[in-house]
Amino acid sequence: MKTLLSRPWIWSFIAALSVWLATIAFTGGASTVGLSQAALTFAAFSVLVGIGQMFVITLGPGNIDLSVPATMTLAGTVSLKYMDGQSGLILHGLAIAVGVGVCVGMLNYALIKALRIPPIIATLSMSFIVQSAAIWTNRGLRIKPPQALADFTTQTSFGIPNIALLALLISVAAWVLLHRTPYGRWIAAIGQSLPAARMAGIAVDGNRFVTYLLCAILAAVCGYLLACFSGGAALNMGSEYLLMSIAVVVIGGTAVAGGNSNVPGIWGASLFMFLVVSMLNTYGLGAGVRLMMTGAIIITVILLASGRTANLR
Amino acid sequence: MRISTDTLRLAVPVASLLLLLAGVFYLQPRAMSYNGLNLLFNLAVPIALATVAQMLIMAVNDLDLSMGTFVSFVACVAATYLHDAPLLGALILLAAIATYAALGVIIYLRNLPSIVVTLGMSFVWAGLAVLILPVPGGTAPEWARAVMISKPPLVPMAIIASALIAVFAHLLIMRSSLGVLIRGVGGNQRSVQRAGWSIIAARASAYALAACFAVAAGICLVGLTTGADANIALRYTLLSIAGVILGGGEFTGGRISPIGAVIGALTLTLAGSFLSFLRISPDWQIGAQGAILIMVLALRLLLNRLESKGGKP
To answer: Which domain holds residue B163?
Structure first.
C-alpha cells in the first residue's frame, strides 16, 4: 500500500475515481455505463496526444510541442480528403496521416536545430504554417469518413470502446519504450542534464529528433481517429488539445522540468479531465461556473500533488 | 567604438520593424499619413502592454499561459463594472492584481510549474469573464475611449502610446532597483537570496507589475473596440510570448528587453497588415505570420554568429 501511494501517478487515479463516484452518486447510478464508456473514449484521445507530449516534456525545460492541434487538424483533413469515404483506402489514409506527422516532426526539429529557436517558439511558428495548410486543404469541405472506420471508432468490444483499447495498446508500447529501452533512458538523461548526457556519449540530437517525430506522429494519428470519430474533420478540432495535452501530462505526475516521466498517470489525468467536465455538466452548472471550477480543480490537484516533489528536493 | 551586446540585441527587432514598415509603405503609399499610421498601429497598443506583462513573468523564468484570458477578463470588467460603477470596477481589478501577486508567491513557495498553474488560472479567468459578460456587449468607460481616440498634433496616438510604454517599461525594469532585483531572480535566484533580498517580495512584485500592465492592456482594448466579449483577447497569450522573443528576450536567465518587447509587438501587428496589403490568400495569412517569425529569428541567429566572431580576439 505504501509503495502504491508513493507512485506519482496514483493521485490522478484517486482524483478521477472520486469525481466518477461524485457524478454517479448524483445521477443515482442511472448512466454509469454510458458515462464510463464516454470517459474512456474521450480520455483515449487525450492519452494519444498526451503520450507524445510526455516524451517531448521529458527532454527538459522549455521542451513543449505547441504544434499538436495544427498537426491533428491537418492529418485529419488530408487523410479524410484522400479516403473520400471509401473503406478500401483506410490503411492508405492512415499512412497519409502518419506521413503528415513525419513531415511536421521533421520540420519542427529542423527549426529547433538549425535556427536554435527555443522549441516553444519553433513549434508555435510551425503550427501557424501547418494550420494554414489545413485551412487551405479543408476549404470548408466536410467529407464523411469511410463507414467501416467510423464504426470502428465509435463502437465497443467487450464493453470497452475500441479507441480506448487502441490507446491502451499504444500506452503499453510507450511504457516499454520509456522504461525498458535505451531510448527511454537516454531521453530521461537528456532531460535531467543535457550537457551531462552529451558528455556521457548519448546522441543528443538524434534522440531529440526522434522524440519530436514521435510526438507529431501520435498527434497525427489522434487527429485521424478523432476526425473519423466525429464524422468529419473540422478546422478547430485540435484546439482544445493544446492545453489538454500539457495538462494531462503534468497532472499525471510527470515532472515539468523533464527527466522523470510516467505513462499510467496520463490515463488517470485524462479520465479526470473528462469526468470533471461531465460532473459539472450533470450538476447543471452554467458555462462560466464550469470553466472556473475546472481551473480551480486543476490548481488544487497540482497543489496537492506538489507535496511529494517538494520533499524530493 | 564597439557596439554593446544589448544594442546589437535591439538591432534585429528594429531592423525587422523598419523593413516591414518600408514594405507596407511601398505597397500602400497612402498608409504613410497621420491616419494611416494610426490605423496600422492602433491595435498594437494593447498587444504591446500585454507583451510587456508577459516579459515581466518571463524575467523571473516563468511563463504565463493565461495572459489572453486575463486580458479578456479585464476587458469584460472594464466594459461593465468600470463603466457602470467605477469604484467597484477598480476594486475588482485591484483584487485581480493581488491574485496575480499571490500566484507568484505560491508558484515559488510550492515549487510549482508556472505553465500549469497559469493554465489552470486561464480557465478561472475565462469562467469569470463569461459570468460577467455572457454575450458580447458592454460599454467602454468614457475616459478610456477618449484617450484611445484622441488625436494629438503631428504624431498619431498609437505611436506616442507605444513610445511611452517602451520608455516607461525601460525605466522601470532596466533602470530601477526593483527591476534589477526582478531580473536578478531570473538570472540566479540563489545568489539574490544570499545577498539578503526577499525572493518572495521580488516574485510577488514581478507578478503584480505584470498584472498592472495586463490590466492596462484590457482597458486600452476596450477603449479601442468600445465593447467587450469573453473571447476578445484569447490570441494575446501566444502573441505576447512571440513578441517578447522577437524583441530579443529569452525564456530563462532574466535576459529581457522592454523596448525590444514593444517593438516585437508592433512588428507582429504590422505583419498582419503587410500580408493583407500583399493580397495573400486569407488561407495563408496565419502561415505567413509564422514564416515572418521564423525569418526574424533566423536573422537574429545570423547576427549572434557575427557578434561571437567579432568578440574573439
So the answer is: 5-306
| β partners of residue A161 | A156
Q: Alpha-carbon distance B212 to B217, whole Å?
A: 9
Provide DSSP, B131-150.
HH-SSSB----HHHHHHHH-
Sign of CA dihedral B136, B140, B145, B148: negative
Best mutation target, B133, B286, B296, to test chain A (most A CBs within 10 A):
B286
Judge whether A29 is closer than 8 Å to chain B, CB to CB.
no
Give the closest residue to B132 by CA, choosing from B90, B86, B72.
B72
Helix residue ranges, H only, A230-263: 240-251
A2-312: CATH number = 1.10.3470
**What pLDDT, in 10s, does the model give residues A58-99?**
887 778 888 888 898 888 888 888 777 777 777 888 888 888
Interface test with A, best of B51, B124, B132, B303 (most A CBs within 10 A): B124
Chain A contact set for B291 (CB, 8 A): 125, 128-129
The CATH number given to whatever domain includes residue B141 is 1.10.3470
Q: Is residue B150 part of a domain?
A: yes
What is the residue type of A20?
W
ipTM above 0.90, yes or no: no
Q: Does B10 touch chain A (CB under 8 A)?
A: no
DSSP assignment letter at B104 = H
In sequence order, what are the residues at sequence separation of 6 or more whose Cβ sits closer than 8 angstroms to the Cβ of residue B211?
B53, B70, B96, B97, B99, B100, B101
- B184 within some domain: yes
Q: A56 touching B, CB under 8 A?
A: no
* Contact yes or no for A133 and B301 at CB 8 A: no
* Average of per-residue pLDDT across B92-114: 89
* A5 burial via Cβ count (<10 Å: 0-12, 13-18, 19+): exposed
Domain count, chain B: 1
Distance from CA of B294 to the nearest CA of A (A): 7
Scanning the structure block, which residue is given the C-alpha cell 491574485? Answer: B99
One-letter amino acid identity for A139?
A: R
Instruction: Tell me whether residues A136 and B120 touch, CB distance under 8 A.
Output: no
Binary contact (B123, A291; C-beta < 8 A): yes
Confidence band, pLDDT 50/70/90 cuts, at residue B207? very high
Statement: residue B305 has pLDDT above 80: no
B20 domain residue, yes or no: yes
Name the helix (H) or strand (E) containing A160.
strand A160-161
Instruction: Answer yes or no: do B128 and A288 touch at CB < 8 A.
Output: yes
**Residue B210 above 90 pLDDT?**
yes
Please say if the pLDDT value at position A308 is more than 80.
Answer: no
Q: Which residues, numbered 182 to 221 in chain B, qualify as contacts with chain A under a Cβ-Cβ cut-off of 8 Å?
A: none
**For B288, nearest residue in chain A (alpha carbons):** A129
Residue A310's contacts (CB-CB under 8 Å, 6 or more residues apart) are: B110, B111
What pLDDT shows up at residue B99? Answer: 93
